[in-house]
Amino acid sequence: MGEFQELWPGGPVFSQAAHFPLGTDSVLLAAFANVRGVKEGIDLGCGSGVLLLLLLTRAVGLRMTGLELLAESAETARDNLRANGLEARGEVVCGDIRDSRTLFGSGAFDLVVANPPYYPLGSGALPDDPAQAAARGEVSCTLCELCAAAGYLCRSGGRFCLVHKPERLAAVFGAMRAHGFEPKRLRLVCVDAGAAPSLILVEGRRGGKPGLSIEPALFLRGEDGGESAELRRIYHRE
Known about the structure:
The chain has 238 residues and is an alpha/beta fold. The chain contains 8 helices and 11 strands. The two termini are 30 Å apart.
């Protein structure tokens, strides 16, 4: 187990698993996810559990489950919950996303979140380390398999939020719709106002009606080249 560090002064403490360092994409997803009225949530592929901590910190009435394939990372996520006194509202299951139907009941969750591997097999070279390769590319779970699991786990009217790459937006929308989700919110993440999007944040509603809200872009840098005011707020650096 690594050392615990505060995510922000006075905030939750966090220890990273070797294969799942803390990334901006997870932090942005936690800020994007709508937790209003949510009682039960699940993070598919929770890694070290940072999404669990961030969402549990945002909503005191929320209970979160993490599903993680790697036993070492699952144990790190449990350590992070315990270190923050959140084990009563959070748990981590070590298992495969593709086995969700045998691990959980249908419609058991109001909210599903995921920071999945971005790259389909055959789209480029992957790291030699198997765990790092699975975190970067769709080795252990494809986008369609992820959306299938989310469709089974999410109740009617529930939300599915994920972060992905903009070049896969059409594939994300297609996979969501194929498994019962209507895309309802889209936010583009750009390094600055002059840059093309580098990430997308998407929310789908289980059984929702058509109608997509495109939110203002999130810029990581301001006009002065430093962190934008919104990024500082998300990271509690104001």
